[in-house]
Specification:
Layout: H1 5-28, E1 34-38, H2 45-61, E2 65-69, H3 76-84, E3 91-95, H4 98-105, E4 117-127, E5 129-132, H5 141-150, E6 156-159, H6 165-177, E7 182-185, H7 189-197, E8 203-204, H8 208-217, E9 221-225, E10 251-259, H9 264-278, H10 281-287, E11 293-294, H11 299-320
Parallel strand pairs: 1-2, 1-3, 6-7, 6-8
Antiparallel strand pairs: 3-10, 4-10, 4-11, 5-8, 5-9
Helix pairs in contact: 1-9, 2-9, 4-11
């Protein structure tokens, strides 16, 4: 026993030293550039929003934030890279709805949205817009619902693909209104919007930023926004709730996460910096042209929100039999 005592003491001292370094690490963090993984290609909403927050967040943290586009497999390649990164705060990832839906969409997934990540905070939220081609005889949501009920399966909607926000939003709308509208999936939001503009499909649920120029030009008619409040970018367009679709809400959001195991003081440092930049008018002005508003939360609030979203979408995906495999 006596011979082992020095070894035990050394282990205890080493453990105490490791624990004490956590606050020190937070005080000196960051001491090098931070990599921000965007798990989708350049030019998409996640990439654009990552670039919008990178500079001000880097200034707030007194470092440089480097965007790393790791696209492919519906965001899974980038999310796997983030999950496997060292949990030291020098790798973070920005993602949207696929963060919580891919677990249910793919039979085999190498990462888990709850187990493998520590939420830093929510970043932004924004609605989709229910739009119809001008040839559709519907000036209001109620008109469209009556038309769809009278002609089940004759109307069609375009989505950016199976398991995308366009798809989920439309399926929620169909459930809420008791309608059957045919789903036409495309390879991305651009082609889906083009065929809606051409009248090949009657309606769609694009993001606000994608729909806005076409609504302003009169080439698409906006019937409602999907959030619970109107947007200042389309102040005359009602929400779906105002239009009579009870309790309907669908928003696209973005969340910033670190790998699981990142020290809590480091996560708190990142979160405090994020909330600081989101609190100013500068970021609101940057986000609005993209159809987003700042969405401030603590890491704990973000964790609860994301867990609820995982459950909500899992139920929808199971009920609809949606799969990406």
């Amino acid at each position: 026993m006596g011979d082992n005592l020095p070894n035990i003491l050394r282990m205890l001292i080493a453990l105490a030293g490791a624990v004490l370094t956590f606050p020190v690490a937070a005080q000196t963090f960051p001491s090098q550039p931070i990599r921000l993984i965007a798990p989708f290609p350049p030019g998409g909403s996640v990439d654009i929003m990552a670039r919008l927050i990178a500079e001000p967040l880097g200034k707030e943290l007194n470092t440089r934030i480097v965007i790393d586009n790791r696209s492919g497999a519906s965001g899974n390649i980038g999310m796997e890279a983030a999950a496997r990164a060292a949990p030291d705060g020098y790798t973070v990832v920005l993602n949207t709805i696929p963060l919580v839906t891919n677990k249910s969409l793919f039979a085999k997934l190498s990462w888990d949205p709850i187990r493998d990540f520590a939420p830093v905070g929510m970043v932004a939220t924004g609605p989709h817009v229910l739009v119809v081609h001008p040839k559709v005889p519907a000036a209001k949501v109620a008109d469209l619902v009556r038309l769809a009920r009278a002609r089940p399966g004759k109307l069609s909607y375009a989505s950016a693909g199976v398991g995308t926000t366009f798809h989920f939003c439309a399926e929620m709308f169909k459930d809420a209104t008791g309608t059957f509208i045919l789903h036409i999936p495309y390879r991305g939001g651009g082609p889906a919007l083009l065929d809606t503009l051409a009248g090949q499909v009657e309606l769609s649920f694009p993001t606000l930023s994608a729909a806005l120029p076409h609504v302003k030009a009169g080439t698409l008619r906006a019937l409602a926004v999907t959030d619970t409040t109107r947007t200042s970018l389309l102040p005359d367009v009602p929400t779906l709730r105002e239009a009579g679709v009870k309790d309907f809400q669908f928003t696209q959001w973005l969340a910033l996460l670190a790998p699981a195991g990142t020290p809590q003081p480091v996560v708190s440092r990142l979160s405090t910096a994020l909330r600081s930049i989101l609190n100013g008018q500068e970021m609101r002005g940057r986000f609005q042209p993209q159809g987003f508003e700042p969405f401030q939360t603590t890491p704990e609030e973000a964790g609860k929100f994301l867990a609820a979203e995982v459950e909500r979408y899992a139920k929808l995906i199971k009920a609809k039999g949606i799969t990406s495999d």
